[in-house]
Write a structure and sequence with these properties.
This protein is mainly α. The protein has three helices and no strands.
């Protein structure tokens, strides 16, 4: 069985033009994921208590609650992580975050 060698050269085609809304969404989703993970680390040592009823139910659903907190924080845009990711994605595609060539 002959297997052709992999090409070591970089592709010569340019990536497709980037939709600024897609870059914004990618940045916001990344920020939500990162903030959710940070919150899970923060809450890892916190005992389940009477604030939400405690017990197995709170342990089960806490991760979902923290993910939603992460989404809400990312939507507010106060940390700026999403904007940085958006700018890097736009730069990767050869555009500024406003959608003009750069």
């Amino acid at each position: 069985m002959d297997i052709p060698p992999l090409s070591t050269t970089a592709p010569t085609t340019k990536p497709a033009a980037l939709d600024p809304a897609a870059a914004r969404k990618a940045g916001q989703e990344f920020e939500a994921l990162m903030v959710g993970q940070m919150l899970e680390s923060m809450f890892a040592g916190v005992e389940t208590g009477s604030a939400f009823g405690g017990g197995q139910g709170e342990r089960t659903w806490r991760g979902f609650m923290l993910q939603e907190y992460g989404k809400a924080i990312a939507e507010a845009g106060t940390l700026g992580i999403g904007r940085m990711v958006e700018a890097d994605v736009a730069r990767l595609y050869g555009q500024t975050s406003e959608g003009t060539k750069g």
